[in-house]
Amino acid sequence: MMCFCATVVSQTVRSYSNEFLNIGVDAAALGMSNAVVAGTQDVNAGYWNPAGLTQLEDNQISLMHASYFANIANYDYIAFAKPLDDLSAMGLSIIRFGVDDILNTTQLIDEQGNIDYNRISLFSTADYAVTFSYARALPLDGLNLGVNAKVVRRVIGDFANSWGFGLDVGLQWKKNNWDFGVMARDISTTVNAWSIDEEEFATISAAVEGQNQEVPETREITIPKLQMGLGRKWIFSYDYSLRAEIDLNVRFTQTNDFFSSSSLSATPAVGFEFGYAELVYVRGGVGNFQELTSLDNSSTIGFQPNIGVGFEYKGIHVDYALTDIGDQSAAIYSNVFSVTLDWGLFR
Questions:
Q1: Are 53 and 146 in contact (CB under 8 A)?
Q2: CA 63, CA 339: separation in Å to the nearest integer?
Q3: In the chain, fewer beta carbons within 10 Å around the N or the C end?
Q4: Which pLDDT tens digit goes with each residue over 189-223?
Q5: Using an 8 Å Cβ cutoff, are 316 and 62 in contact?
Q6: What is the pTM assigned to this prediction?
Q7: For 306-345, what is each residue's pLDDT tens digit?
Q8: Three-state secondary-structure class, residue 53
Q9: Beta bridge partners of 243
Q10: Which 3 state secondary structure label does DSSP give 198?
Q11: Would you give the DSSP letter of residue 346?
Q12: Cβ pair 180, 229 in contact under 8 A
């Protein structure tokens, strides 16, 4: 039997909401365990910290695809960004996280109690986000500001759908080889307004024997999150480089993150990138430190180690990341590929 619940009647604040927007984009960043808030400076900065878009020297486009849960769920991302002048830049990105061809077995049994497989239908559930980014250099040397306006669309077959809107604000400050970044996600609180087909809901509720489910809330609120990062880059013998960054990801609610209280939770992430001749890159990182509870109620600390490699040649950037090596955490594990192209290739 299939049951679903979406968040109606009044508004609900959830510790985990619109979580597909927290997975991350760009295999290069994922290979560093998402520790890129301070150093991001290409088209993908629209997601990680829009202030980094000011570092663009040319238009760029980025594409990424990943499959999760044994290819049941597909995660797709495309982004475009361009400098507007010497001080400002803009970007646009689209994310889709979806599960297609789900079996709807709520009508499997007919009125006479007979099983009829012809009554099985298919539906899809998908989450979409469209983000518009703008960045500008501020009067203080090295200080940049970026803003995201995002529209969130979530669809559960013909049963329910929602629209949401939110704002992100990011800052970056670059001094010599040091980078500092702050990203405030959902700073306005992102509100998803759900619309539920009550006829379909009544059909599903009736199909689940012994249950009388109430129509869920129609307003779901995503509370703000804060990411802070400090990074540095070293150059060795001209051809060799090393970039390292440490981030702290903060939620203003209680979760199972490594540091947690009734009103605040936080988990660190550390990543590095070793480069040769701006041609080949090797990356690694660890993050997503969380307290995991076993069936016997014992607790352990889980973490997510990632690795990755990248190649760059004449404006073509190809990156790969393997996330959650050895299945050390409860997080999603996958092979991730992404491509970033400089616009000069199309001229």
A1: yes
A2: 5
A3: C
A4: 888 888 887 776 666 555 555 555 555 677 888 88
A5: no
A6: 0.85
A7: 999 999 999 999 999 998 764 544 445 678 999 999 987 7
A8: helix
A9: 233, 273
A10: helix
A11: G
A12: yes
